[in-house]
Every structure is written in structure tokens, then in C-alpha cells.
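Can't attach files on this board, so I'm pasting raw text. These are the components:
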Amino acid sequence: MSGTPIPLTSTPRASRGSTSSSFLAQATQAWTAIPSSCRVDYDTMTVAPLELSCRSCGAKLVVEPTHRTTRCPYCDTPSVIDRPATADRPDPVFAIGFTVDGDQARSFLRSYLSGRHWAPKALRQATAERVEGVYLPAYLYSAVAHSRYRASIGENYTTTEFDAKRKSMRRVTKTEFRTLEGSHRCYVDDLVVTASEGIPNIELEAIEPFDLTGLRRFAPAMISGWTSEEPSLSRDASLGLARQESRADVARRLRAFMPGDSHHGLQSSTTLTDEAMDLVLLPVWVCAVRWGKEKEPIRLLVSGQSGRVAGEVPISWAKIAAVVGAGLALIGLAIILGALL
Amino acid sequence: MSDTVLRCDRCDSAITVDDLRCPICNLTSSVTLGEDRPETAVEILRCSGCGAAMTYDVGRRAASCAFCGSVLELEQTKDPPEEARLLLPFTVDRDRAKTALGNWLGSLGWFRPGDLTSGARLETIQPLRWVGWVFDARATVSWAADTDQDSHRSDWAPHAGQTGLDYDDVVVPATRGLTREEIALLLPSYDLGSAAAVADLVDLVDQATLERFDVPRSTARARLVKAVELVARRRLEERHLPGRRSRNLKTATVLRRLEARRFAFPAWVLAYRYKDRLYRTVLSGQDAGCLKGEAPYSAIRIAAVAAGVMAIGVILILLGLLF
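---
Top answer:
C-alpha cells for the assembled complex are below.
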């Protein structure tokens, strides 16, 4: 391999006023409706687009600051860009390589769409207009969680009491509640949160889990020729998401940790220490599906590792109205028949 | 396979340079974290065969050249099979092992066939080294349970606590050749301090079959963590829970400084034949008195005793009827 990276001098341009936006925003703006909160505006970021030259033909490469990879517009040679790490844009530590190819992604998508029974017929039969493999930046978070908790624990007991109606004794199960306070400590690990403004965490969660045994040390060879996004969410924003997810995870574990036959009023406070967060590139197929002339195309994600599909699919109000109408008609018919007989 | 031991920065457990992350707390290993590049670089991955640019190929799970088809293999996560590193020497030699079997057969008691010692023929005697992990660790265990302490109307009252547990030289067997009961009997007979590295071992017996750990490293660690959990539950129930009875024991463990060594323990596997049937026994390689095995019962003697007991019973009943 002669692919040893050679540093080139870059000429950073002031990005103020430029309208560059992330790949996902750019790629989907034309044909996908993204909520305005997801639109990326890099005017506020101090990252400049890079001007580098193609190592193959010497032509100027214009690389968006949101990309880690590019192709030369003249000779189509794929390049991997390696920038100095910053706090909000650290170097990827891990990557999970694609194991689902484009054709498989399309077929996963087709079967997902045809299974949406409430979706408009045109959409259920639609095929993806564009399917693009993207390495999505995300953070892998782990920490030690220390919690204090307090809950009311229900302990059941049986007793016999007199049944006035039946005039006999009967056994009844009753519950006495006792307060329990304590400490709980555990590791929180393998939490994945988005580092991309284009893909909100909730969308990423929908195609999780990723099998982390497929985790590899990041190498340019894993992303060469593919679109790879740089983190666009600030580290603090991702950290906030990770802490929120950790607390939810610990709360879930605490509920399962409670002894007794039942419990209620569980309250807890959790402190996270020894936190660590590393950048990982996840394989995701970003698909745009157009399903009607006047309709806005929808965006769906397919995990490039498991083939899991997720995305919001509109429902057909006509179908719902038809079913509700048919139901009402049946009820009406039954009432009329009942009245007649 | 590299066994160079590093320490996890968070939980201080032993990790190897091959580990991308700590297997206990999942912290990224300091080896995995690369160095920062001071300047921006553009990298083109070139095929060493034809010079064309290579791209990642889904089918091959690696970067490949579209022109000549050559593949640049990615670094694979190493998950090597485990091998024993420390061996305990045999202190019971072949002759003493045979004698031990004879003594044991003679000590089994009256319900065994009378000619067991003379009628048993030794078929095979095999020196074996069975394998297992021996680990040390520190753990903070949070627990919650219902116990009978301070209970009111219900039999149970909730209790919770947090305690530090130390694990020193806890053995987790990895063998498939021996049963759990056999291992439980053999374990106390071993002197872990006598262990030596393969190269330094001075032994009475050579050509002992060395059993293999038939699990890769990742599975081994999962088993160790499970063992830690089991030992913690047992210790909590024995020493830390208030009251005499308990139920619904829940635990959460934060493990630190886990260090596992791979041991091979010496044993003799002896098979003897008595009246066309083979019986298997296992003897510790370090204690001639520590033997576990199967032996026939004498059907005639048992029947005789049963008949005698019944006869006495009948006589007593008859006597009871008469008086």
C-alpha cells in the first residue's frame, strides 16, 4: 500500500457567509422535508472548507468541513481527509464497517414499506429514489453511575377475615408498604448517541442496536470511497444526550433492582463519574423515497450492519376513514337489524 | 497472541495490547486511542498491485481494488483461544495413584461386592491436566433483598446495602473432561503456590494430557464476570444479609482490578473393570487421599439386608398382633 498520508498545506477560508451545510442536509434538502430544527447552519461554526489538491491528478478539491471523505470531480479518485482533532470534532476511534450492501438495503426498505399497512398504497409500493451509504458520526459513552434511591416496597401477606355476606371466614392477600433507602452503583456502557445534527438521536435509536463486537479500530481503509460525515453536533450536546440516556438506563435498572412483591414512589438521584466518550463511525444507508408527484419525499434509515429500517411513514387518512366508515356502517346495520327483530 | 499486560485506566483490570476496550468496564484502551495529527492530510488508499485507488467493499468487508481485485485486509479484532500459562506439578506418581485406587476400593464398606478389591482390573491410568481460571478482583456490590429481619405482618421486610468484596484466588473451572462434583472434591487438594510457568516446571510425571481451554478470550471473560456474580450472591447470602432467610436478592456489581491467570491442575483418571463394566475414578495429582469415583454395589448384600429388615418388621408386627 502506498497510501501513506502526506500533509498538504490547506488554505482555510473564512466561512462566514458561506452557505455550506452538512451532507445530510444538502443531500436531502432538494427532495426531503427535514424538520427545521435539523437544518444545519455552519455560519456559526469556525470550521472552514478546505482547499486541497487531488493527490492523483492535481486538480483542486473543495472539501466541505462536514465531510471526512471526498471524490475528485475530475478523476473520481476517492480521498480520505484527516484534519487535526478539535474538542468538538475529535478523530474517530472506532468504526463499524458496512456489511449490508446497497441492493440488500433496498430490499430491506421494500419489505419495510410493504409492511406498513396504514401507509398510502403508493408509498407501500414505492422504491427508494436514492440510497446512499454514509458513515454517521456517533459517540460511544461509558461511565460509573452512583445512585441514591428511596422507594416504598410492598410486602404481601395473607390473613383471614370474616365475610359478612357469606357469613364465613376467607383468606385475603394484603400488602404492607415499607420504605427502603439505599445506594446503587453500576457501570453504564455501550451507550451510542448521535454526533450529527442531520440525524437526531431518536432516529439513530430506531435502527439500533449496533453489534459492538463488530467494532474496529478506525482506519481510512474502512471509509475510502464512502461518504463519511464529521461530527456536527457539539461534544457538549452529545454528552448531554448521553447523560440523559444513562440516567434513563439507571432508572430502568433501579426499577428491576427493587425487592418486594411490588413497589411505588421510586425516587433516585444519580451522579455519573469516570465518564468516557469516543467517536465511532456507524454504517447507515440514508434513503429518500418519493411516492407521489405532489408529495414530499420521506427519509428512511437502514442500518448498514443489521439491515434494521426506521423512519416515519405517513399514514393514509383515506384508509383510516374507510375502515372507520365501514365499522360505523356495520354497527348501524346491527342496530337496525336489532330494532327490526 | 500477545499477553503483555496493561491496566485499564478506569477499573485497573488487566488488559492486553490486543484489546480495543477494557472487557470489564468497556473503557477504550489507551493503545487504541491514536495520536493527533497536527496538520490536515489527504490520503488516497492505493493498490499495491496496480496503483489504482482502493475503496471499502461490503462483500469483502475490506478495502479492495476495483481493477485488479486485490484486497487490503482490515485489522481484525483478536480473540485468540486461551492456553494454560501456569502448571501445578504432580506430587502423586503413577504407582501411588494405583495404590490409592486399591486403598479406596478397600475402604468403601460392606455394601460393595466382597471381591471388589481383588476382582477389579485396572484398565487405564491417565495423567491429565485440567484447566481453569484463577482470578483476583475487587468489587463493590450493591444489593437489595427481602429478609425475615424486622418483618412485621408480612414474613418479609426489604433491606439494602453496599459492600466491598475481595476475590483472591477464586477458581473458575473451564474443563469439560471432569464433572462439577469431581472438581468440587479435587479443588481443596491443590496448592496454588506450587504453580510454575510451562518452561520452569519440574514434574514427576511427563506426557500428561494438557486439556485445552476451548473458549476464546471474550467468552472466557464473560464466564468470569458471571462467576464473580455467583460468588458475590453466595457470599452476600452467607455473611451480609440480615436475618436467617431471604428472597428476591438483587445485585449490581462494579468490578475493579480483575486479573485472571490460566492454570492447569494435575489429576489421574483411572478406569477399572469389574465384571464387564468400566468404572471411572479421578484422583488429585497432589493428594493421594483425594479420590472421587464410581464403584459397584453388591445387589446380593443389599437384598440380604433389605430382606433382613423386612423379616424383622414382619416379626415385630406379628408380635404386636399376638400381644
